[in-house]
Input
Amino acid sequence: MTMEHAYAQALSGTIQKGVKPADAVRALKRSLDARGRSALLPKIAHAFARLSAREEARNRMTLSIARQKDAQRAVKEAEKFLAREHISEADVCEEVDESLIGGWRLEGKGVLVDASWKKDLLSIYNRSTS
Output
């Protein structure tokens, strides 16, 4: 692990504990200045951005729908699943996936719920050709 990555993780941990981001960055800058390592600040910022993007991707769930008109029904069905799994709805982003024929897919956080017509049609095709 590089030094800038270690500082970025420490900064992230400090912010997650409830310290205001601006205060945490100021404290980090003072600490770096005191140690003569202020030149690391841009590299730490870059490492922090990568760390934050990775964490956001890990915590995000994507609801893919075939058509915009399917959105309302898909959201209702996905909400039922999310409630059962105790996952906050704020963690879900919605997108239209034109490769789906109909239905929806919810994926993220190690979960995949595939309620798409594409999956059903592929299943029928595989059973009939096997």
User: Anything to note?
Assistant: The chain has a mean pLDDT of 88. The helical segments are 3-16, 21-35, 41-59, 71-85, 117-129. The chain is about 60% helix and 15% strand.
